[in-house]
Structure formats: structure tokens, C-alpha cells
């Protein structure tokens, strides 16, 4: 099988896989990807602005498929969620990320926290909090150094197990971030249901702060971000702007009162081998 173009997956015979076939092949292969060591993590800094100091590293999972090459998490995470593999995949991510965090902490970056993405389906697992506690214990990384990023991709309200998991990890001392803020369900009310300490503004809003955008849209995203800054200040939350790519965007965000940012402007997701160099550079400059 061969990858062709952005979303095309072509067999060596030349047959271009349709959506269903592609999904089947990826699901089949994903079942073995973990044991075959095809998954790996990259880490992207979250920085204070305007000074650009790294305060956290977000673990982002990658899949090096033997035939398709690099498959994006946007493609395989939903598959893992649909076929029940997300539990073991998520556990592997947490374990591997905590191990890496143990190494950067030992190398002198003990103040840099770790953020790990968690699927809503993981929070529905009965022993999620116990699993997190066990992995923390094994890694020696303190609970306060860990942040779990939760999206509002599916509506979590009223799920008893989810609140059990959330209470459980909070009791451990682990932090919660609300990821992709503004894109999902009842955003502001969600801040009431979930004991989050960090809110991440989705990059669609950051994108429309500058550049060739309709004036009404630009006014809207500015107003939204300014309101978020005010809400975060009142509730004592940290606000992180995602997907910051240009100095113009950073200037706008800083003018609106943002104090944390993540994006290619500061650093792309990095393999662990490049982390210490990057952290050293970013801490000194
Ligand atoms: P996310 O959690 O919103 O992660 C941010 C995504 O934006 C990442 O894509 C990152 O590489 C990308 N990004 C960072 N800075 C910039 C920028 O300046 N410009 C642009 N255009 N993009 C930027 P990635 O790594 O492809 O991950 C996509 C999504 O897959 C993540 O979105 C997250 O929802 C999910 N994901 C990744 N790793 C995991 C994981 O271990 N577990 C779970 N459950 N989901 C994961
Ligand atoms: Ca995230
Ligand atoms: Ca996000
Ligand atoms: Ca996202």
C-alpha cells in the first residue's frame, strides 16, 4: 500500500483505497502498531508570552505506518476511539510521555510540566483515575506536573463515570485543561461542569485575528478572546492560545491580554531527542 497525496492511500497495485477500505486497513494495522513500536511521541512547548519561556510540553502521538508513512492523529485517533483501541493507546501515551517527562525533569527542567491529550472515551473507563495514579507512581513524576487535556468534542454532561474519573484525577493533584475551546458544546457552561485550571483557545480563532479576514469576523474573534481573558482572570484560569504562527498574531493576542501561547512561531512539535536543546535555547534567550 502506498500513500498518495494528502488523504489518498493507494495500494501498490495502483488501486486507490476508498474511505471504507482505508479505514479497514488502518484499523487492522492499528491493532498491531503499539506492539510493533510504530507509535511515538512528539512534544510541543506551551510558552509564556511575550517572553516565550516554555512552561509545559504537550505530548502529541504519531504513527509511522510501514507502508503509508506518517499517519496523522486526526486520522487514527477517531479510528482508535471507534474500535476500542483508545484505552490501550491512551495508556501507552501516558506511560511514554511520563517517562520522557522524568528525563527532562532529571536534566534540569523540573519546572516544565507535561500535558497529555485524553479522549473523552478514556474518561468513561471505570479505572481511569487509578490507571493515571499507577503510571504517575511508576514514573516518579509528581501529579502536580501533569496536565490532562480534555476536548469538548462529545457532550460529557451527565456521565457519571466521567465525573468520577475527573474527581479521581483531581484528587491525585493532576491538572485539567479544556482543549479546543470554542469549537464544541456549550463552551462557557462547560467551565462550570469541569474543574479545569487551563483553557486552550482553538486555533481557528487565532487564525482569524489577522490576515485576509472579514472585518465582522475579526471583530468577533477579538471580542471572544477579550471576553475569555476576562473570564479566565475572574475564575483564576490560565488561558493558552493555540496555533500561533505569526508575530502579528502574537502581537494581537498579547494586546488582548493573553499570557500563554503555543504554535509554530515558538516551536513545532519536537522529537524527544531535540527537546533538551530546544528547552535550553528557549529558557536562555
Ligand atoms: P490538539 O490537541 O488540538 O493539538 C494541536 C494540534 O495542532 C497538533 O496537531 C499540533 O501539531 C498542531 N499545531 C501546533 N501548533 C500549530 C500551529 O502553529 N499551526 C498549525 N496549523 N497547527 C499547529 P497533531 O499533532 O496533528 O494532533 C492533532 C490532534 O490529534 C490533536 O489536536 C489531538 O486532538 C489529537 N491527539 C494527538 N495526540 C493525541 C493523544 O496522544 N491522545 C489523544 N486522545 N488525542 C491526541
Ligand atoms: Ca491538545
Ligand atoms: Ca487543541
Ligand atoms: Ca484540535
UniProtKB/TrEMBL annotation:
Keywords: Membrane, Transmembrane, Transmembrane helix. The keyword Nucleotide-binding does not apply. It comes from the Bacteria. Residues 23-283 form the EAL domain. This is EAL domain-containing protein. It comes from Deinococcus metalli. The chain holds residues 360 to 644 of 647 of the full protein.
